[in-house]
Design goal:
Belongs to the acyl coenzyme A hydrolase family. Keywords: Hydrolase. This is Acyl-CoA thioesterase. It comes from Paraburkholderia acidicola. The termini are far apart. The chain has 1 helix and 5 strands; from the N terminus they run E-H-E-E-E-E. The protein has one domain: Thiol Ester Dehydrase, Chain A (Roll), CATH 3.10.129. Strands 1-3-4-5-2 form a 5-stranded antiparallel sheet, covered by helices on one side. It is elongated, with a radius of gyration of 17 Å. By secondary structure, it is α+β, with helices and mostly antiparallel strands. The structure holds coenzyme A. The site of coenzyme A has 14 residues, from strand 2 and strand 5.
Protein backbone atom coordinates (compact mmCIF):
# COMPACT_ATOMS: atom_id res chain seq x y z
CA UNK A 1 0.00 0.00 0.00
CA UNK A 2 1.35 3.41 -0.86
CA UNK A 3 1.31 6.25 1.63
CA UNK A 4 -1.09 9.02 0.58
CA UNK A 5 0.45 12.35 -0.33
CA UNK A 6 0.28 14.60 2.70
CA UNK A 7 1.04 18.25 2.07
CA UNK A 8 0.17 19.36 5.60
CA UNK A 9 2.93 19.43 8.20
CA UNK A 10 2.96 20.61 11.80
CA UNK A 11 4.10 24.26 12.06
CA UNK A 12 7.82 24.72 12.67
CA UNK A 13 7.41 26.61 15.93
CA UNK A 14 7.05 25.75 19.57
CA UNK A 15 3.85 24.10 20.63
CA UNK A 16 1.99 25.44 23.69
CA UNK A 17 0.28 22.15 24.55
CA UNK A 18 0.02 18.52 23.37
CA UNK A 19 -2.72 16.19 24.51
CA UNK A 20 -4.47 12.95 23.47
CA UNK A 21 -8.27 12.94 23.99
CA UNK A 22 -9.56 9.92 25.90
CA UNK A 23 -12.86 7.98 25.57
CA UNK A 24 -14.33 10.03 28.44
CA UNK A 25 -13.89 13.16 26.24
CA UNK A 26 -16.11 11.78 23.44
CA UNK A 27 -19.81 11.95 22.68
CA UNK A 28 -21.95 8.86 22.03
CA UNK A 29 -20.77 8.79 18.40
CA UNK A 30 -17.10 8.58 19.38
CA UNK A 31 -16.13 12.09 18.28
CA UNK A 32 -14.59 14.44 20.81
CA UNK A 33 -16.86 17.06 22.42
CA UNK A 34 -16.41 20.60 21.12
CA UNK A 35 -16.53 21.86 24.70
CA UNK A 36 -13.56 19.71 25.66
CA UNK A 37 -11.56 21.17 22.74
CA UNK A 38 -12.60 24.70 23.77
CA UNK A 39 -11.27 24.08 27.29
CA UNK A 40 -7.90 22.91 25.91
CA UNK A 41 -7.75 25.91 23.55
CA UNK A 42 -8.41 28.23 26.50
CA UNK A 43 -5.56 26.59 28.45
CA UNK A 44 -3.20 26.81 25.45
CA UNK A 45 -4.01 30.49 24.89
CA UNK A 46 -3.50 31.32 28.55
CA UNK A 47 0.11 30.08 28.45
CA UNK A 48 1.66 32.88 26.30
CA UNK A 49 -0.79 35.34 27.89
CA UNK A 50 0.31 34.56 31.45
CA UNK A 51 3.92 34.78 30.33
CA UNK A 52 3.33 38.18 28.70
CA UNK A 53 1.33 39.41 31.72
CA UNK A 54 3.93 38.00 34.08
CA UNK A 55 1.12 36.74 36.26
CA UNK A 56 -2.53 35.81 36.31
CA UNK A 57 -4.90 36.41 33.43
CA UNK A 58 -8.64 35.90 32.94
CA UNK A 59 -10.34 35.03 29.67
CA UNK A 60 -12.64 37.92 28.75
CA UNK A 61 -13.71 36.91 25.24
CA UNK A 62 -13.73 34.12 22.70
CA UNK A 63 -13.71 36.26 19.56
CA UNK A 64 -13.92 33.45 17.04
CA UNK A 65 -13.88 29.68 17.12
CA UNK A 66 -14.04 27.35 14.13
CA UNK A 67 -14.14 23.56 14.27
CA UNK A 68 -12.79 22.77 10.81
CA UNK A 69 -12.53 18.97 11.14
CA UNK A 70 -13.71 16.43 13.73
CA UNK A 71 -11.38 15.24 16.48
CA UNK A 72 -11.26 11.54 17.37
CA UNK A 73 -10.30 9.70 20.54
CA UNK A 74 -6.60 8.84 20.27
CA UNK A 75 -5.63 11.75 17.99
CA UNK A 76 -2.42 13.48 19.07
CA UNK A 77 -3.47 17.15 19.31
CA UNK A 78 -0.91 19.96 19.10
CA UNK A 79 -1.95 23.49 20.12
CA UNK A 80 -0.02 26.50 18.77
CA UNK A 81 -0.72 29.83 20.46
CA UNK A 82 0.55 33.20 19.21
CA UNK A 83 -0.07 36.65 20.63
CA UNK A 84 -1.50 38.77 17.81
CA UNK A 85 -2.38 41.96 19.73
CA UNK A 86 -1.85 43.60 23.09
CA UNK A 87 -3.56 46.60 24.65
CA UNK A 88 -3.21 48.31 28.03
CA UNK A 89 -4.39 45.27 29.96
CA UNK A 90 -5.50 42.82 27.27
CA UNK A 91 -3.74 40.16 25.21
CA UNK A 92 -5.32 38.61 22.12
CA UNK A 93 -4.10 35.18 21.11
CA UNK A 94 -4.65 33.08 18.01
CA UNK A 95 -4.73 29.34 18.67
CA UNK A 96 -4.42 26.69 15.95
CA UNK A 97 -4.95 23.01 16.66
CA UNK A 98 -3.58 20.17 14.54
CA UNK A 99 -4.41 16.47 14.86
CA UNK A 100 -2.18 13.55 13.99
CA UNK A 101 -4.60 10.69 13.46
CA UNK A 102 -4.04 7.51 15.45
CA UNK A 103 -4.75 5.28 12.46
CA UNK A 104 -2.49 7.20 10.07
CA UNK A 105 0.33 8.67 12.10
CA UNK A 106 1.68 10.66 9.14
CA UNK A 107 -1.63 12.40 8.50
CA UNK A 108 -1.75 15.94 9.89
CA UNK A 109 -5.09 17.75 9.88
CA UNK A 110 -5.85 21.29 11.06
CA UNK A 111 -8.93 20.76 13.21
CA UNK A 112 -9.58 24.06 14.97
CA UNK A 113 -8.69 27.74 14.88
CA UNK A 114 -9.72 30.31 17.46
CA UNK A 115 -8.98 33.80 18.71
CA UNK A 116 -9.33 34.63 22.39
CA UNK A 117 -8.69 37.70 24.52
CA UNK A 118 -7.25 37.56 28.03
CA UNK A 119 -6.94 40.37 30.59
CA UNK A 120 -4.06 40.65 33.04
CA UNK A 121 -5.53 40.75 36.52
CA UNK A 122 -4.27 41.46 40.00
CA UNK A 123 -4.95 39.55 43.20
CA UNK A 124 -8.15 41.65 43.48
CA UNK A 125 -9.24 40.10 40.12
CA UNK A 126 -9.39 43.58 38.53
CA UNK A 127 -7.55 44.51 35.30
CA UNK A 128 -3.85 45.26 35.69
CA UNK A 129 -1.57 47.10 33.26
CA UNK A 130 0.66 44.81 31.21
CA UNK A 131 4.31 45.08 32.23
CA UNK A 132 6.58 46.87 29.76
CA UNK A 133 8.46 44.60 27.36
CA UNK A 134 12.11 44.22 28.31
C1 LIG B 1 -11.61 40.09 33.02
C2 LIG B 1 -12.25 41.21 33.87
C3 LIG B 1 -11.50 41.32 35.20
C4 LIG B 1 -12.09 42.51 33.08
O1 LIG B 1 -12.71 43.51 33.81
P1 LIG B 1 -13.59 44.64 33.03
O2 LIG B 1 -13.88 45.73 33.98
O3 LIG B 1 -14.72 43.94 32.37
O4 LIG B 1 -12.51 45.10 31.94
P2 LIG B 1 -12.37 46.45 31.13
O5 LIG B 1 -13.68 46.92 30.61
O6 LIG B 1 -11.52 47.40 31.93
O7 LIG B 1 -11.52 45.91 29.87
C5 LIG B 1 -10.25 45.30 30.09
C6 LIG B 1 -9.66 45.01 28.72
O8 LIG B 1 -10.44 44.00 28.07
C7 LIG B 1 -10.84 44.47 26.79
N1 LIG B 1 -12.16 43.93 26.50
C8 LIG B 1 -13.31 44.19 27.15
N2 LIG B 1 -14.32 43.53 26.60
C9 LIG B 1 -13.82 42.84 25.56
C10 LIG B 1 -14.37 41.98 24.57
N3 LIG B 1 -15.67 41.69 24.54
N4 LIG B 1 -13.55 41.45 23.66
C11 LIG B 1 -12.23 41.73 23.65
N5 LIG B 1 -11.64 42.56 24.56
C12 LIG B 1 -12.44 43.09 25.49
C13 LIG B 1 -10.86 45.98 26.90
O9 LIG B 1 -10.74 46.58 25.64
C14 LIG B 1 -9.66 46.19 27.78
O10 LIG B 1 -8.48 46.08 27.02
P3 LIG B 1 -7.23 47.15 27.13
O11 LIG B 1 -7.00 47.45 28.57
O12 LIG B 1 -6.08 46.39 26.54
O13 LIG B 1 -7.64 48.34 26.34
C15 LIG B 1 -13.77 40.91 34.13
O14 LIG B 1 -14.51 41.14 32.93
C16 LIG B 1 -14.00 39.48 34.60
O15 LIG B 1 -13.67 39.16 35.74
N6 LIG B 1 -14.56 38.64 33.73
C17 LIG B 1 -14.70 37.20 34.04
C18 LIG B 1 -13.43 36.47 33.63
C19 LIG B 1 -13.58 34.98 33.82
O16 LIG B 1 -13.96 34.52 34.87
N7 LIG B 1 -13.24 34.24 32.78
C20 LIG B 1 -13.32 32.80 32.80
C21 LIG B 1 -14.55 32.29 32.12
S1 LIG B 1 -15.90 32.21 33.23
Amino acid sequence: MTTPANPMQLPQKSCALRVVPQPSDANVHGDVFGGWIMAQVDIAGSIPSSRRANGRVATIAVNSFVFKQPVFVGDLLSFYADIVKTGKTSITVEVEVYAQRLSLAQEVVKVTEATLTYVATGSDRRPRLLPALE
